[in-house]
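Input structure tokens:
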């Protein structure tokens, strides 16, 4: 018999099913790696391999992080970068980033994904676009790290083909030729991409941004992705500088350029989408593209406030993201949900983003962005067992009348229990595999070496 786990006596279950059901005092059954039943009243009879008591705890679907640069956990709060805007920040950091190697990528991926898990994230993407000469197998190591941890992983094969000599921003030793980029993209897809239900690894293709690759590479990447049945991702409309750059070098605004290279399609998701006009919003919505909304990063770099409500109303699928750890500088997704709630209100008023909507974007919204809403993002029988318990019995929640809204209003800091694909990876706010914490010392050493340059 498959392993059966019963979560019971829950303060509340937030399902994000089509009826948006919330079940106070409910229970949920996991068999193997799937959710098989949930409800209120007496739970189904045992036997169970494990009973998890949910008193004082709220059960929500596992959170989905739609954009990150895990290697940047090595570059947090770097003097000289920490108070700069995007283009200056990039030019400064490229000089340090170019020193990354296999160990740096592996160790930083472990640390970033450990942080994500502890914050209730069960599926994450990553956008790795920096491949110093001779170090081309870096995504393989991120996948190894994800498999060691047990988190669901969507690495995106990033790319840069325009160095500063060719009008881009990065130094020449971290850009690759188009042939190299496309060949490695094909290799990663055939080696790792798993299209089956419940897959733990799926690949997407992700030129870094319209200003770091050529038009041909944008077009050829899209062609390859569509041939292979994988999604496409890039940064877009993050800053005013980018808009100016696109107008000057490409003769078009970022969204119009995207349309011209065949990227305004449903298989594309875009990080940021801050600087948009009404026509851009309409086009993005009509194309049903996805968005990785990164509020902390946008605020830290002073990039601006994304028009999330307008994008949702236009039909864009919105997920949340912590973005790179050099521009946030944490990998805590539940905190990012609170940030999304706050920033939408700053822009559009107090009714713009109720806590439940921010939580839905952090879960089901992210699943939709990754085209996985049939598998993850809500708590329903038949779906993958990716779920999170948040403890709302502590001091900081005392007196909260609505335990679900309290998750964001009272600023939850971390998850209590996290299950990914039927496996419990976090208990009592700690990773079950305690030996993982040993990696932090090595991470600090590597960070110190790289930042010294
Ligand atoms: Zn980014």
């Amino acid at each position: 018999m498959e392993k059966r786990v019963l979560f019971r006596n829950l303060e509340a279950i937030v399902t994000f099913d089509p009826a948006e059901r919330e079940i106070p005092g409910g229970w949920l059954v996991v068999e193997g790696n799937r959710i098989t039943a949930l409800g209120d009243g007496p739970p189904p009879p045992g036997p169970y391999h494990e009973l998890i008591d949910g008193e004082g705890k709220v059960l929500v679907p596992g959170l989905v992080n739609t954009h990150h640069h895990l290697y940047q956990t090595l570059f947090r709060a770097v003097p000289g970068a920490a108070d700069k805007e995007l283009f200056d920040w990039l030019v400064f950091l490229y000089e340090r980033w170019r020193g990354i190697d296999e160990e740096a990528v592996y160790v930083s991926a472990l640390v970033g994904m450990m942080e994500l898990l502890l914050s209730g994230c069960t599926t994450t993407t990553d956008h790795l676009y920096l491949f110093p000469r001779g170090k081309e197998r870096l995504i393989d190591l991120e996948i190894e790290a994800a498999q060691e941890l047990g988190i669901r992983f969507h690495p995106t094969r990033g790319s840069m083909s325009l160095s500063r000599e060719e009008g881009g921003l990065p130094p020449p030793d971290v850009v690759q030729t188009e042939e190299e980029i496309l060949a490695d993209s094909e290799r990663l897809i055939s080696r790792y991409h798993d299209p089956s239900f419940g897959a733990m690894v799926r690949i997407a293709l992700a030129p870094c941004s319209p200003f770091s690759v050529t038009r041909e590479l944008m077009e050829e990447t899209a062609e390859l992705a569509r041939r292979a049945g994988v999604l496409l991702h890039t940064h877009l409309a993050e800053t005013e500088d980018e808009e100016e750059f696109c107008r000057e070098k490409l003769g078009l605004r970022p969204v119009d350029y995207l349309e011209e290279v065949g990227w305004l399609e449903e298989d594309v998701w875009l990080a940021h989408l801050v600087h948009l006009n009404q026509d851009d919003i309409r086009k993005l919505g009509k194309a049903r593209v996805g968005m990785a909304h990164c509020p902390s990063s946008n605020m830290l770099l002073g990039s601006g406030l994304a028009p999330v409500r307008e994008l949702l109303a236009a039909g864009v699928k919105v997920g949340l993201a912590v973005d790179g750890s050099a521009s946030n500088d944490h990998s805590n997704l539940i905190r990012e949900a609170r940030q999304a709630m706050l920033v939408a209100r700053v822009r559009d008023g107090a009714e713009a983003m109720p806590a439940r909507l921010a939580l839905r974007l952090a879960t089901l919204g992210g699943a939709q962005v990754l085209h996985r809403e049939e598998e993850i993002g809500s708590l329903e029988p038949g779906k993958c067992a990716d779920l999170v318990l948040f403890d709302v019995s502590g001091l900081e929640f005392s007196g909260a009348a609505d335990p679900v809204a309290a998750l964001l209003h009272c600023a939850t800091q971390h998850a209590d229990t996290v299950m990914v694909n039927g496996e419990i990876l976090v208990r009592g706010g700690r990773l079950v595999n305690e030996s993982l914490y040993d990696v932090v010392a090595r991470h600090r050493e590597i960070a110190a070496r790289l930042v010294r340059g």
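The mean pLDDT is 95. Residues 67, 69, 127, 235, 271, 323-324 surround zinc ion (CB under 6 Å).
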